Amino acid sequence: MSYASDLTHLELVFEDNRLIGHLYGQFDQHLALLEQRLGVDATARGNQVTIRGPHEACARASDVLNALYERLQAGQDVTTADVEGAVRMALTIGDQLALPTLEPKARLQHAQIATRRKTVVARNPAQDAYIRAMDRASLIFGLGPAGTGKTYIAVAYAAALLERGDVARIILSRPAVEAGERLGFLPGDMRDKIDPYLRPLYDALYDMMAPERVERALASGAIEIAPLAFMRGRTLANACVILDEAQNTTSMQMKMALTRLGDGSKMIVTGDPSQIDLPAGQLSGLNEATRILSDVPGVVQVRFSHEDVVRHELVARIVKAYDDDSRERLAAREGQR
C-alpha cells in the first residue's frame, strides 16, 4: 500500500546568509528538533531547506522556520527553547485560545513583550493568551504550576510598561509564607527580610533591565518592594502591581490587595492553587478570588497546565505525576464516603 499521496515537500529559501547558522542551530540541532517534534524530514543546503513529510506537518514546519527567521531578522536570539515554543504554537494554531475576547489567528503569530534589554516571546498558547490579556484587562490572574512562566512574563510586562512611561512605578509583593518560616526569624531590616521571598521577581527584573537601571529604580521608588501586610490603606495609582505566590494569601489579604488598585494601574496576580502553604483548614485567598471574580468585566483568568511548562521537559512530567497522584487520592477519598 502506498501513502505517497499523503506526502509532500516544501522548499524554503532564506535570503540573509548571516542568519542561517542561528536559524538551523549548531550542527543543525534546530532542524533536528523540528524533525523530531513534527515528524518531517528537513534537509538544509546553504540557505535552502527542503521539508518532506505529511502535508499538515510540512506546513507547520514551514510556519515555524519562517517565524523563527522573522525573529532573527528583528535582531532577536533563537534558542532551542524558542524552537520548542514555536512548535507548540504551530501545533495549536487552529485552536481558539482560552480568552473569549481574543480573535482567532490566521497565521503563526507569537505575542511578545519587548524591553530594551530583552524580548520575551510566547512559547505556548497559554503564554500567548496571558500576554494578550495583559494588554486588554486591568486585573489578570495567571494560575498554574511552576515553570510555566507566569511570574517571569508578568515582570517582563511590568518592565516594558515602565520603560515606555505607561506607568510610573512597579510594585512587587508576595506573601511571606514558606515552609513554616516567619520573617521575624530572618536577620536585617524589612527589605533584608523580604528579599529572599522576592528573589524570583528580582531575577526576572535583571533579565529585562540593566542592573544599574534596576538599582536606580529601587533607590528612587520607581520599583517598590511592598510587603503584602504593609499595603493596607494605600491606593496604588499609575502603577503595575505584581502579587506573586498569591495562593498563600488569606481571604482578607487578597481582598485588601485587590482593592488597592487605583487609576491608570494594572495588577497581575500569579499563583499555583495546588501549592498552598497556609495552615491546614485556612482558605486560600487566590482560590476564593478566582471563584468570586470569574464573571467580573475587566478581570481575566489565564490557566496554565503541566503541558505549558517551559523549563526542562522533566519538570512537566514531574508536575503531571503530582497532579495525577492528587486526583487519584481525591477519587479514593470520595470512594470511601
Topology, number of strands: 11
What fraction strand?
15-25%
Tell me, briefly, the overall form. globular
Order of helices and strands: EHHEEHHEEHEHEHHEEHEHEH
Unreliable residue runs:
95-108
Distance between the termini: 55 Å
| Tally of DSSP helical segments | 11
Tell me, rounded to a whole number, the average pLDDT: 82
Report the major sheet.
6 strands, parallel
Describe the structure.
With 337 residues, the protein is of the alpha/beta class. Helix content is 42%, strand content 16%. The protein contains eleven helices and eleven strands. It has helices at residues 20-24, 29-38, 55-73, 80-91, 125-136, 150-164, 190-208, 211-220, 251-258, 285-292, 313-336; strands spanning 7-13, 41-45, 48-54, 112-114, 119-121, 139-143, 169-173, 223-225, 239-243, 266-271, 299-303. Mean pLDDT is 82; it is low at 95-108.
Please supply descriptive tags for the structure shown above.
337 residues, alpha/beta, six-stranded parallel beta sheet, three-stranded antiparallel beta sheet, 42% helix, 16% strand, globular
Short description:
This protein is α/β, with parallel strands linked by helices and 337 residues long. The protein has helices at residues 20-24, 29-38, 55-73, 80-91, 125-136, 150-164, 190-208, 211-220, 251-258, 285-292, 313-336; strands spanning 7-13, 41-45, 48-54, 112-114, 119-121, 139-143, 169-173, 223-225, 239-243, 266-271, 299-303.
Write the layout of secondary structure elements.
Blueprint lengths: L6 E7 L6 H5 L4 H10 L2 E5 L2 E7 H19 L6 H12 L20 E3 L4 E3 L3 H12 L2 E5 L6 H15 L4 E5 L16 H19 L2 H10 L2 E3 L13 E5 L7 H8 L7 E6 L13 H8 L6 E5 L9 H24 L1
Parallel strand pairs: 6-10, 6-11, 7-8, 7-9, 9-10
Antiparallel strand pairs: 1-3, 2-3, 4-5
